[in-house]
Amino acid sequence: MKNRIFTISVLITLLMHSCADDPCKDINCLNGGLCIEGSCDCPEGFVGAFCEQKDVCLGVTCPYDGECMEGSCICVDLTKNYIDGAWLFEGTNYVLRFNVDGSFWDAGGKEYTYELNMSARTITTYDLDGSHVFTYNILEDNFFCDKLNLGTAEGEKTNTLIRQ
Question: Are 46 and 53 in contact (CB under 8 A)?
Answer without folding.
Answer: yes
